[in-house]
Amino acid sequence: MAFARQIAALFAVIVTISATPAKADEYPSRPVKIIVPFGAGGPTDVYARAIAEELRKSLHQTFVMENRPGAGTTIGTEVVAKAPPDGYTLLMVSGTQAVNETLYAHKQYQLMRDLIPIAPLIDTDLVLVAHPLVPAKTLGELLALARAKPGTINYGSSGPGSNYHMAGELLKNLTGVDIVHVPYKGSTGARNDILSGQIQILFDSVPTMAPMIKAGLVRPLGTSGKTRSLILPDVPTIAEAGVPGFNATLWVGFMAPAGTPQPIVDKLSREITKILAQPDIKEAWGKTGATPIVMTQPEFKSFMDAQVAKWADVIKANHIAPIN
Predict the structure, then answer these.
(1) Is residue 56 helix, strand or coil?
(2) HEC string of 276-294?
(3) In angstroms, rounded to a whole number, what is the distance separating the alpha carbons of residues 27 and 12?
């Protein structure tokens, strides 16, 4: 009996050891999948591919990109939320997912419950532009026009819940103007229609709009960050131009399924932070209008919690209907 008990105890120890997750110093021992819940070629996709290559160099393992767009990022996000929490499936997260926590009524996950923030990546400003025929040369003149003719100015976006949509809603929230949202199935249609004058104004990323601004195809009225854009230094921020407190940037970061071992989360957070501190990365990304964001893992979680709350307030204040 004593011998049998010893064998049983030994077997229990072996089972426990075999069930223990891989240690951080062994991670990654096989390719890591990064789910990007956007189409290929957009800002999130571009920066995700760049960081994946840097992680490959530093961690000596392949990081494979997989684009899973659809349903306002909820399809790709759900894939990661339901993936094994072993560090081998990661998510590119952005402000859109923070908005979706309130906007989408029947998601099969909760962002801050079912996923864990790892580290932020970049932050880039948006710019509010107008078609040249709009009789407003400044943001103040645009707001005056919107107040004089409520409901007559249309602003486009790449779809409900997108950064571009919510920047417009924040402008409405802070100024009380009545401008009309025109959602498109992606950014291309909105960009085409601002150039043709089918819509009057548009929020878009600074890197995308800068060439069009310099060519005189659209008129810039303000950028969305706390400080002026290095790419468009002559364009005031929207806060400078008369809307105090306005801040609506496009940020991107990494998450993993909840339950991913903390040592692996910490290792990824440290490696990403090291990469973002590289002078060549900062310089190259700065030329595109992107600013690397450096936060600890707890700081990034607090930041994301605040983003979810901020956009929930905007959605409620502007009576934006949930998407079912």
Answers:
(1) helix
(2) HCCHHHHHHHHCCCEEECC
(3) 25
Q: Report the chain's terminal Cα–Cα distance, integer Å.
A: 62
Write down the pTM of the prediction: 0.85
Could you tell me the CA-to-CA distances from 286 to 52, 124, 125, 281 in Å, in that order?
18, 9, 12, 8
Q: What is the mean pLDDT of residues 172-197?
A: 94
CA distance 212 to 194: 11
At 169, list the tokens: 């809603």
Cα 283 to Cα 10: distance, rounded to the nearest angstrom = 56
User: Cα separation of 72 and 320, whole Å?
Assistant: 15
Contacts of 149 (CB under 8 A, 6+ apart): none
Q: Which two tokens stand for residue 185?
A: 């199935």
Residue 138, domain extent: 126-223
227 and 180 Cβ atoms separated by less than 8 Å = no
1-22 pLDDT, tens digit per residue, is 444 444 444 444 444 444 444 5
Whole-angstrom distance, CA of residue 3 vs CA of residue 277: 58
Domain count along the chain: 2
| Same domain as 116, residue 30 | yes
Residue 233 lies in a domain: no
The two tokens of residue 56 are 């490959």
Q: Is pLDDT larger for residue 6 or for residue 290?
A: 290
